[in-house]
Specification:
With 264 residues, the protein is an alpha/beta fold. The protein has helices spanning 16-29, 44-48, 60-64, 70-73, 91-97, 107-112, 132-140, 154-171, 191-204, 217-221, 229-232, 237-263, and strands at 3-7, 34-38, 74-76, 82-85, 121-125, 143-149, 177-186, 208-214. It has one domain: P-loop containing nucleotide triphosphate hydrolases (Rossmann fold, 3-Layer(aba) Sandwich), CATH 3.40.50. Helices cover 45% and strands 17% of the residues. The protein is globular. The structure holds adenosine-5'-triphosphate and magnesium ion.
Length: 264
């Protein structure tokens, strides 16, 4: 069964999409079968792995609204181990169209159930909001990966997110766990940035990944080439940080898998 990891933070521009693209690519390049699901109408994760959907091709919108199966919406990427379900602008309307739909928070979870066995990891890129589309991702997910930009208001935003996760756990998904917090756009020369990073480590302890993503221009350039940074410039500091993150995530679950087998 694939582990479903949603990349979430209602704050905009903190590195969610960059993380979704490069974590899924990093897992795929390390030999794990991975699926990237784009839940943001901006569709940056979709274009970030070189996919451009035509109007006829099924997207996450069609999957959420039951107009396509998840299977039909699967697309290949440049990496043999990575497939994707792309987003389109229609997803903006889904927030409203889903309101009166039965089981409106469970649509994605139900739709991807049949795909789970095919992948070791399913990574979902969420939009910067906590609306119905994000709730569908949170309901589907085993765990959440929260990118945190090292800046002054970072902790404030996290409090709101953690309380939403609490509500989701009570009402929609009891199993949901925090995979980890990822420090992004880190600049060690900036005192405030170092301070915020230290505060987050103090607050969240082991929940913070060892991998830290530096501010790195290769990470912002690579999307315009439709490539994950791990392919665009594998030796760049940004790419190396994401390779390390992928390794941390994979190692955590490989150990769990072994422990579970030993228990039997
Ligand atoms: N570590 C980094 N170093 C430099 N630029 C980065 C880094 N991470 C992300 N960026 C750039 O910052 C911008 C925001 O990043 P990204 O799109 O990943 O954030 P997001 O949280 O998905 O945003 P949104 O909330 O709008 O979906 C993008 O232009 C991206 O290329
Ligand atoms: Mg994004």
């Amino acid at each position: 069964m694939g582990r479903i990891i949603a990349i979430v933070n209602q704050k905009g521009g903190v590195g969610k999409t960059t993380t979704a693209v490069n974590l899924s690519a990093g897992l795929a390049m390390a030999g794990h079968s991975a699926l990237l699901i784009d839940m943001d109408p901006q569709a940056s994760a979709t274009s970030g792995v070189g996919i451009r959907l035509t109007a006829e091709e099924a997207s996450t919108y069609d999957v959420l609204l039951g107009q396509s199966t998840a299977e039909t919406a699967l697309k290949k990427t440049m990496l043999p181990n990575l497939q994707a379900i792309g987003a389109s602008q229609d997803l903006i309307g889904a927030e409203i169209e889903l309101v009166n739909v039965e089981q409106r928070e469970q649509r994605l979870k139900t739709a991807i159930t049949s795909l789970r066995w095919r992948y070791e990891f399913i990574v979902i890129d969420c939009p910067p909001s906590l609306g119905l589309v994000t709730l569908n991702a949170l309901t589907s997910a085993d765990s959440l990966l929260i990118p945190v930009q090292c800046e002054y208001y970072a902790l404030e935003g996290l409090t709101a997110l953690i309380s939403t996760i609490g509500l989701v756990r009570e009402q929609l998904n009891q199993e949901i766990d925090i995979e980890g917090l990822l420090l992004t756009m880190y600049d060690g020369r900036n005192t405030l940035c170092r301070q915020v990073a230290a505060d987050i480590r103090e607050h969240f302890g082991e929940k913070v990944f060892q991998a830290v993503v530096p501010r790195n221009v290769r990470l912002s350039e690579s999307p315009s080439y439709g490539l994950p940074a791990l392919l665009y410039d594998p030796s760049s500091k940004g790419a190396l940080a994401y390779a390390e993150l992928a390794q941390e995530v994979a190692a955590k679950h490989a150990t769990k898998g072994k422990a579970a087998t030993n228990d039997v």
